[in-house]
Write a structure and sequence with these properties.
Elements lengths: L1 H8 L3 H15 L9 H29 L4 E5 L3 E2 L4 H8 L2 H10 L4 H5 L6 E2 L3 H15 L4 E6 L7 E5 L2 E5 L12 E12 L2 E6 L5 E6 L2 E13 L6 E10 L2 H9 L3 H13 L15 H24 L7 H4 E6 L5 H13 L4 H11 E4 L10 E3 H7 L1 H21 L4 H7 L2 E2 L5 E3 H8 E6 L2 H9 L3 H6 L4 E3 L6 H7 L2 H11 L20 H26 L8 E6 L8 H17 L8 E6 L7 H19 L7 E5 L5 H7 L5 E4 L11 H7 L3 E4 L5 H8 L4 E3 L4 H9 L4 H7 L1 H12 L11 H9 L5 H20 L1 H13 L6 H13 L11
Parallel strand pairs: 1-4, 1-12, 4-11, 12-13, 13-17, 17-18, 19-20, 19-22, 20-21, 22-23, 23-24
Antiparallel strand pairs: 2-3, 5-6, 7-10, 8-9, 10-11, 14-16, 15-16
Helix pairs in contact: 1-2, 2-3, 2-5, 3-4, 4-20, 7-34, 8-9, 10-12, 12-13, 12-15, 14-15, 22-33, 23-24, 23-30, 23-32, 29-30
Bound molecules: ligand 26Y.
Keywords: Carbohydrate metabolism, Glycogen metabolism, Glycosyltransferase, Pyridoxal phosphate, Transferase
Family: Belongs to the glycogen phosphorylase family.
Cofactor: pyridoxal 5'-phosphate
Length: 822
């Protein structure tokens, strides 16, 4: 018995080796002589999955049989990153597997690099969902993540002639060993059509939704294993298909072509991730995607609940549903529909259950990112939900009108329906009304939410509001991506920090230790050499690993102010041109990030950066003092290579615009010092690491507001600052674009005459802070000390801490340890 168990799921090198060989032969029908790199990758992954599966089964049994509350995380995006290495770390068999693969004549790293990452998200919000799934499992909290199995994730970015070009992300092309297709687990989702109303035999009002399209959602499960625990939660992603019965009907009626067309319409729903981040588009397909996955997920939860023989009324005791922004907010109306129309509850009871089920996280203050649906369009896709939203709103407005009698402005602002030339549905209001808890993602963000976007909701229900500052998982963002730093830290303070990040504090006492400083900077240097090699390979550009690695990586967006950084680069360049022998700290400025394909300005900013790079990198006067890199296709895989090599982390958004940021945390945890504004979680990072270890600059959120109120005039900053004027004139006159003055025309105009994000207002302050960075970097020992202290004090920013806060204060759930029975 024990022997069999061992052969299949044992963790020794021997057992792993046999498992990999067995997989290669019995699953893939390959033998070493003909097996490809991908075959080996698959074999290792299946061997690892076998070991996760028994933990998964144990977890599911333990908490779906029991009386534990389960956290249900609803998110349209999961930016997971590659699975193999992460699972090896969480299982604790990285070394053993490396050895096993070696004995089979291959290199584990070579296989790990073969994995195509699932890029089922845009940026911060999607990556946060992935970090939270890791922490939920690690903290042994029963949880299920629900989302969409996009056939194409976030596009791949290539740079041609300095411009971004997009390519489709066919991430499933070599198969996906981490998911299990569950054909038997599927639900029907209705779209369009109309609603019939009638009174049944008991005199009860009933509604019958007759759709004009029915889609089937099929579950694909991916196990999410925690670190150093047995707990393995489920990420359940829905794929859309045509229901068999439906095309059959059409087919019988002689409509073969219609049936085929219908099939394509159905499959289109989960076809592709929308690549917009923080820019609402209002596309019908996107609404269909949202409703599709939310409906499948709620049907699934209700099924699980009722199968356990519990009363429908107790649904909220079994599941607490977290809404990752408003993208799944339609769930409020959908749960109402299911409770009313399917389970025949009365309105009050259904509303009571619904509002005890949902909690809502807001991730943005940008007005252009707030979801609104044209009411007419909405009614065409979801006629029954439109009725329900009207009724929810009617009852709500009745109360509000009494409470705020005469305050028409407030009443209009609270309404779920916006009026104007066209009526629209406000998803943030639906989410706020339908949830028992509302949170922002950093202290400043939550305060601003209460004062601006959700002000009226805060005044109506202050008890619903709380802050939950974001965090990141140290497993992926330190242990996996920076094994050298991990070893150095563990050597000093043991391995406890990996699960209890506050223990990093133990590093403080070594901050001035010369030997430790040297070892610390050696690790950093080694990482910079590695990244330099990648840059050479990818871009045929040589960079100096001794230079200051100045890193600005995130989605391209005007509010994130990559342009401000570009202006600094030009300023440094001009200093060299003005004084060719100038003694300055050599820098490598590294940018990376995708622009939404329809976001013209963001694309122009990429072109600006690559154009500056072309001039700077090829100017013999510059020598090795300045290099500009635009690293293409920023994704989780590339981020894991970039963060460890960073000396300086650029977090320079206009104050009040970045809800939290999480790249700021990842870079800092890898030893980079931050240059940043008082925005998002930067405020808290600075508080933790100490103001003396943070390069602060720029206006704060209040001052930004004040400047705007007093009438901001960017042109005067341009006129009054010769360095700034020179830089902008050069861009404008085609200095970086072969004298072509059209290339950056819109960009320069926007900066000089509009400058929504106050780039010009913060320019000088930024330059001064950068000069201070350079001066500090000259003192290697000082820099090392700051970097060590910085890491030592970052414990708060573990996603374990965030998840604990959610568990204690919102979800009211406790860990349920999973034991393996043999
Ligand atoms: C409505 C649609 C176009 C849309 C799609 C994606 C709107 C927003 C998004 C994504 C938003 C996002 O990623 N927000 C980021 O969330 C992070 C996690 O909380 C924050 O750290 C970050 O500041 C915020 O910009």
């Amino acid at each position: 018995n024990i022997l069999i168990e061992d052969a299949r799921t044992g963790l020794s090198v021997e057992a792993l080796k046999r498992a990999i060989s067995n997989n290669l032969f019995y699953v893939q029908g390959k033998f070493p002589e003909i097996a490809t790199r991908n075959d080996y990758y698959m074999a290792v992954s299946y061997a690892v999955r076998d070991r996760i599966l028994k933990r998964w089964v144990a977890s599911v049994k333990q908490y779906l049989d029991g009386k534990h509350r389960v956290v249900s995380y609803l998110s349209a995006e999961y930016l997971l990153g590659p699975h193999l290495a992460n699972n090896l770390i969480n299982l604790g068999i990285y070394k053993e597997t490396g050895q096993a693969v070696k004995e089979l004549g291959k290199e584990l790293e070579w296989l790990i690099d073969k994995e195509i990452e699932p890029g089922l998200g845009n940026g911060g919000l999607g990556r946060l969902a992935a970090c939270y799934m890791d922490s939920l499992a690690t903290l042994e909290v029963p949880a299920i993540g629900y989302g969409i199995r996009y056939q194409f994730g976030i596009f791949e970015q290539d740079i041609r002639d300095g411009w971004q070009v997009e390519d489709t992300d066919n991430w499933l092309r070599r198969g996906n060993p981490w998911e299990i297709e569950r054909r038997e687990l599927n639900y029907e989702v209705k779209f369009g059509g109309h609603v019939q109303h009638y009174t049944d035999n008991n005199g009860k009002f009933c509604s019958n939704w007759i759709p004009d399209l029915v889609v089937k959602g099929v579950a694909y499960d991916t196990p999410i294993l925690g670190y150093d625990v047995n707990t393995t939660n489920t990420l359940r992603l829905w794929k859309s298909e045509a229901p068999k019965s439906f095309d059959f009907q059409l087919f019988n009626a002689g409509g073969y072509n219609d049936a085929v067309r219908q099939k394509i319409v159905c499959e289109n729903i989960s076809k592709v991730l929308y690549p917009n981040d923080e820019q609402e588009e209002g596309k019908i397909l996107r609404l269909q995607q949202q409703y599709f996955f939310v409906s499948c997920s709620l049907q699934d939860m209700l099924g699980i609940h009722l199968r356990q023989g519990d009363k429908i009324q107790d649904f909220y005791k079994k599941f607490v549903v977290q809404l990752n922004d408003t993208h799944p907010a339609i769930g409020v109306a959908e749960l109402m529909r299911l409770l009313l129309d399917k389970y025949q509850l009365e309105w009050e009871e259904a509303w009571d259950i619904t509002t005890k089920t949902f909690a809502y996280t807001n991730h943005t203050l940008l007005p252009e990112a707030l979801e609104k649906w044209d009411l007419e369009l909405f009614g065409r896709v979801l006629p029954r939900h439109l009725e329900l939203i009207y009724e929810i709103n009617r009852r709500f407005m009745d109360k509000v009108t009494v409470k705020f009698y005469g305050d028409h402005h407030k009443i209009a602002s609270l309404s779920l329906i916006g009026e104007g030339p066209k009526k629209y549905i406000k998803m943030a209001n639906l989410a706020s009304l339908g949830s028992f808890a509302i949170n922002g993602v950093a202290a400043l963000h939550t305060e601003l939410l209460k004062k601006t976007v959700l002000k009226d909701w805060y005044e109506l229900s202050p008890e619903k509001f709380s802050n939950k500052t974001n965090g990141v998982t140290p497993r992926r963002w330190m242990v996996l991506s920076n094994p050298e730093l991990t070893a150095l830290i563990s050597d000093k303070i043991g391995e406890g920090w990996i699960k209890n990040l506050d223990e990093l504090r133990g590093l403080e006492k070594f901050a001035q230790d010369q030997d430790f400083q040297k070892a610390w900077m050696d690790v950093k240097h080694q990482q910079k050499v590695s990244l330099s090699k990648k840059i050479l390979q990818r871009l045929r550009l040589r960079v100096d690993a001794d230079s200051l690695f100045d890193v600005h990586v995130k989605r391209m967006h005007e509010y994130k102010r990559q342009v401000l950084n570009a202006l600094h680069v030009i300023t440094l360049y001009n200093r060299i041109k003005h004084n060719p022998d100038i003694d300055m700290v050599p820098r490598t400025v590294i940018f990376a990030g995708k622009a939404a394909p329809g976001y013209k300005m963001a694309k122009q900013i990429i072109k600006l950066i690559t154009s500056i790079g072309e001039i700077v990198n090829n100017d013999p006067d510059v020598r090795d003092r300045l290099k500009v890199v635009f690293y293409p296709n920023y994704n989780v895989t590339n981020a894991q290579k970039i963060y460890p090599a960073a000396d300086l982390s650029e977090q320079i958004s206009t104050a009040g615009k970045e809800a939290s940021g999480t790249g700021n945390m990842k870079l800092s945890l890898n030893g980079a010092l931050t240059i940043g504004t008082l925005d998002g979680a930067n405020v808290e990072i600075r508080e933790c690491v100490g103001e003396e270890n943070f390069f602060l600059f720029g206006l704060n959120a209040d001052e930004v507001e004040e400047v705007r109120v007093n009438g901001y005039d960017p042109y005067s900053y341009y006129n009054d600052n010769p360095d700034l004027k020179l830089a902008l004139d050069q861009i404008n006159d085609g200095y970086f674009s072969h004298l072509n003055t059209d290339t950056f025309k819109t960009l320069v105009r926007s900066l000089m005459f509009d400058d929504q994000y106050l780039v010009l207002a913060d320019y000088q302050s930024y330059i001064d802070a950068q000069d201070k960075v350079a001066e500090t970097f000259r003192d290697k020992s000082k820099w090392a000390e700051m970097s060590i202290l910085n890491v030592a004090r970052m414990g708060k920013f573990s996603s374990d801490r965030s998840i604990k806060d959610y568990c204690d204060e919102i979800w009211k759930v406790k860990p349920v340890p999973v034991k393996l029975k043999n």
